[in-house]
């Protein structure tokens, strides 16, 4: 019995045992189905299963991102439990972690791996983009807490980011893009019609650091369109024209600001509200502020330098409105965005420090002006004089104000990546300072302990100078503070080695001190400093590898700050109250302190009507958003299926090779048929065909049609094999069987590798007995359907095979696909009715010999894989005999 049938019988018996016992798994030591097959307990133990017990079918489908299975399970309302927060202290989490912490962490990771599946998010979420944002942020936070699985959580977070970006890739129009980016998740905010077209979804993406989504070309194209509103074709203009245009608008920003203050709804007022114009005006205002700082540092206006409380100069009076404007702008930003969002931006922290220094400078100058009225030489002033402290703070604030201009570099494609790299390097410097400060403090403590006893007075030193700032350095390690300074400046080579000497002849102390000083220099210069350089190089390379994404994300944050309502006027014009401000203030005062009675409920009805209208508009917008999301998901799924098919390896080269193989097979068959002596052929269009022996000695010219019989004998190793049973039942149709064998022997040399594949294919179909089916089967004929062979044909073939004698297992029986006539007489009675029906059904495919050859391409397109799989079973000692009637 063939091995395949044994396996099928074994499987059926196993299913029967499972059905009768009605148990989910086999727990016996051995399940004996017969004397040959046993199922050991090792195969049934859950400890050796492929998946852990917490893996459910929908989780497994989500892990493999199988869209079809996930869709089927979601339609059946199968869900995945949402894991608790990482810092959850509920009874369930605590008990699970105490019982098995590894299983608890692994279970959480498996759930998040399933939740991060793009197919599951697309099928189960009403807003897949927002779900991907939040899940990606949550996974990023988990990677910081669970360091053991940091790489896995970061990979899942990146997967969610790419899914949101790929979903946005499917947008095909600006309308779809606007609907997506302007959608709000918070319905309370969405009811406000004034805040709908403000790119709410893009703000959420920036909040969750979705850099791939923000830097996506579709999103950037829409942003550029909104940014350059009012300047069509700006990017196509020459750089000289762009520069002149920006300079002109920059010089006119005072007049534009005044026009907006007078009439915000005028053409000039609406012109300055455009994002690009607003950016140019704010930049021009800040450059004017830096220019005035430069004038203040150069002391254009001469004053008495010995006055302890000098009055403010003209330049300082001009700087004051800008400082007040900066402070007012920061207060409004903190009020609108909240304190948490405000401190998350590093530039806001820098602005806060800069404004604080300016306020401290103004306060100290006022104190000095009020307290000190006299004039006194500056050399005689005390160290903590208010004027001296104010001047120092003002100098520091000037440095910060100049460096604040770096934030504007983000708008440029060349300077933007450098500015981002500089920010990353500052983070590396902060990390480096922790280690360096520890090393510095350690050696400072040791050197101070060693040289504390050798401190000298200033009068004992040359020029009465004590410290490392003297012409001859001394007392470098006498105090802890002096030691810290000395070690810090030694990194830059500003400290001499003789500072380790002492006046007494204590050579051992000098040797220990010099050794400690040298060791510090080796650690700080050779090790730590090179480590800092390597860290900074790594940060720059990381930005350079993703320069486009990083720069576009930073530029988008800069642009979004000018898209918002408010903050239209630059400093110092933003501190001037506008008529609109007076109107808002009057309405607030009237509603707060002078409430009007409404006995008829007129205002209440008006508010209800406006609320209903806004709610209806929000429902319409949400419906449009859901429609767009459904279209994006459908396109994404179609693209995913196309990519999966492409990744299977079906390329154009594979099809070319297949066509070449088919063409070579056709030429081999044509060459084989062209070398035959019997060339007369005729075909019948009826349901039956009559074959007559085509012999030179046969002189009869009956009305029966003639056909051509081609036999291939692939050789016999053991003994001659009999022909196929169905062929032996038709001795008059195509001549004697011996002649067929002789012809096959004579044509052995024309057999090519392609025909070997075809013979093996027919051998496979002859030996395999499939279930009877009434569905049509397409064969080598183009578009001609024939029924599957019936079980009667198989039984008849097996019966004839038994009568014919012992034949090898590799014999190719073509009785199922043989094209022959329905024979009459005693011999035709041996063929069963089902066989005759099969022959009649297959006879229509022999309309022409050329059509058969042309259709061979279809054969190998569907059967080529089967031939290749059977070729490795071909043995040199096997004997094959193929008889084909055309």
UniProtKB/TrEMBL annotation:
Signal peptide as annotated in the record: 1-28
A Pfam family it matches: Ion_trans
Cellular compartments annotated: Membrane
Source superkingdom: Eukaryota
Protein's membrane topology: Multi-pass membrane protein
Membrane-traversing stretches: 239-263, 275-294, 352-372, 392-411, 432-454, 511-533
Annotated InterPro entries: Ion_trans_dom (IPR005821), TRP_dom (IPR013555), TRPC5_channel (IPR005461), TRPC_channel (IPR002153)
Region described as Disordered: spans on this chain: 683-706, 723-751
Ranges in a coiled coil: none
UniProt GO molecular function: inositol 1,4,5 trisphosphate binding; store-operated calcium channel activity
Name recorded for this polypeptide: Transient receptor potential cation channel subfamily C member 5
Species, as recorded: Ursus americanus
């Amino acid at each position: 019995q063939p091995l395949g049938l044994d396996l099928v019988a074994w499987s059926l018996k196993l299913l029967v045992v499972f059905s009768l016992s009605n148990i989910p798994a086999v727990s016996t030591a051995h399940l004996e189905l017969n004397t040959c097959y046993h199922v050991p307990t090792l195969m049934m133990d859950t400890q050796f299963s492929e998946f852990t017990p917490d893996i459910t079918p929908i989780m497994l489908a989500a892990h493999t991102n199988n869209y079809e299975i996930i869709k089927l399970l979601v339609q059946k309302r199968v869900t995945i439990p949402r894991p608790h927060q990482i810092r959850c202290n509920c009874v369930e989490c605590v008990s699970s972690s105490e019982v098995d912490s590894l299983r608890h962490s692994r279970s959480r990771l498996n759930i998040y791996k399933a939740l991060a599946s793009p197919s599951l998010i697309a099928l189960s979420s009403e807003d897949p983009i927002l779900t991907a944002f939040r899940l990606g942020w949550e996974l990023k936070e988990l990677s910081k807490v669970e360091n053991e699985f940091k790489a896995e959580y970061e990979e899942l977070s990146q997967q969610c980011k790419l899914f949101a970006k790929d979903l946005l890739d499917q947008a095909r129009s600006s309308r779809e893009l606007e609907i997506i980016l302007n959608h709000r998740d918070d319905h309370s905010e969405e009811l406000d019609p004034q805040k709908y077209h403000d790119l709410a979804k893009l703000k959420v993406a920036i909040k969750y650091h979705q850099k791939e989504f923000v830097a996506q070309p579709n999103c950037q194209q829409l942003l550029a369109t909104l940014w350059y509103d009012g300047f069509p074709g700006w990017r196509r203009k020459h750089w000289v024209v762009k520069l002149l245009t920006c300079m002109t608008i920059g010089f006119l920003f005072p007049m534009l600001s005044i026009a907006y203050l007078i009439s915000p709804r005028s053409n000039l007022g609406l012109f300055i509200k455009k994002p690009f114009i607003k950016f140019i005006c704010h930049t021009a205002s800040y450059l004017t502020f830096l220019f005035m700082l430069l004038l203040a540092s150069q002391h254009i206006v001469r004053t008495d330098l010995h006055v302890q409380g000098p009055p403010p100069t003209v330049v300082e009076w001009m700087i004051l409105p800008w400082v007040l404007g900066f402070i007012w702008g920061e207060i409004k930003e903190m009020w609108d965005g909240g304190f948490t969002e405000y401190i998350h931006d590093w530039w806001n922290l820098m602005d806060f420090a800069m404004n604080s220094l300016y306020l401290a400078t103004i306060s100290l100058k006022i104190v000095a002006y009020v307290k000190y009225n006299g004039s006194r030489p500056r050399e005689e002033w005390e160290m903590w004089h208010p004027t001296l402290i104010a001047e120092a703070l003002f100098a520091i604030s000037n440095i910060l104000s100049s460096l604040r201009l770096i934030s504007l570099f983000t708008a440029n494609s060349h300077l933007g990546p450098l500015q981002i790299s500089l920010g990353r390097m500052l983070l590396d410097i902060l990390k480096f300072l922790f280690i360096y400060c520890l090393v510095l403090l350690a050696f400072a403590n040791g050197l101070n302990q060693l040289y504390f006893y050798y401190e000298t007075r200033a009068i004992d030193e040359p020029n009465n100078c004590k410290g490392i700032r003297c012409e001859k350095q001394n007392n470098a390690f006498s105090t802890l503070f002096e030691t810290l300074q000395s070690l810090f400046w030694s990194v830059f080579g500003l400290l001499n080695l003789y500072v380790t000497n002492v006046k007494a002849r204590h050579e051992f102390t000098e040797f220990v001190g010099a050794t400690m000083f040298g060791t510090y220099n080796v650690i700080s210069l050779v090790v730590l400093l090179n480590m800092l350089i390597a860290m900074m190089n790594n940060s720059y390379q990381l930005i350079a590898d993703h320069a486009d994404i990083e720069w576009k994300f930073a530029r988008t944050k800069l642009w979004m700050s000018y898209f918002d309502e408010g903050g239209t006027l630059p400093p110092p014009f933003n501190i001037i109250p506008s008529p609109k401000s007076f109107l808002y203030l009057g309405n607030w005062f009237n509603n707060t302190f002078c409430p009007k009675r409404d006995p008829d409920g007129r205002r209440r009805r008006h508010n209800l009507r406006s609320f209903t209208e806004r709610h209806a508009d929000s429902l319409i917008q949400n419906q449009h958003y859901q429609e767009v999301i459904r279209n994006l998901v459908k396109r994404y799924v179609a693209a995913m299926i196309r990519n999966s098919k492409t990744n299977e390896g079906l390329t154009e080269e594979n099809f070319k090779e297949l066509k070449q193989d088919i063409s070579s097979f056709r030429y081999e068959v044509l060459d084989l048929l062209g070398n035959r002596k019997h060339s007369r052929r005729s075909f019948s269009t009826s349901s039956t065909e009559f074959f007559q022996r085509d012999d030179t000695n046969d002189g009869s010219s009956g009305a029966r049609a003639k056909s051509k019989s081609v036999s291939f004998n692939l050789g016999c190793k053991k003994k001659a094999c009999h022909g196929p049973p169905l062929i032996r039942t038709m001795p008059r149709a195509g001549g004697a069987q011996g002649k067929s064998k002789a012809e096959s022997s004579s044509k052995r040399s024309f057999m090519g590798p392609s025909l070997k594949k075809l013979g093996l294919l027919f051998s496979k179909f002859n030996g395999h007995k499939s279930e009877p089916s009434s569905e049509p089967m397409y064969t080598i004929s183009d578009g001609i359907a024939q029924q599957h062979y019936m079980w009667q044909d198989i039984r008849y073939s097996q019966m004839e095979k038994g009568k014919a004698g012992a034949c090898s297992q590799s014999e190719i029986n073509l009785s199922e696909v043989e094209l022959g006539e329905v024979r009459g007489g005693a011999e035709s009675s041996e063929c069963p009715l089902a066989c005759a029906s099969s022959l009649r059904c297959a006879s229509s495919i022999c309309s022409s010999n050329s059509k058969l050859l042309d259709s061979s391409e279809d054969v190998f397109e569907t059967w080529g894989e089967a031939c290749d799989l059977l070729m490795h079973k071909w043995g040199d000692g096997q004997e094959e005999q193929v008889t084909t009637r055309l």
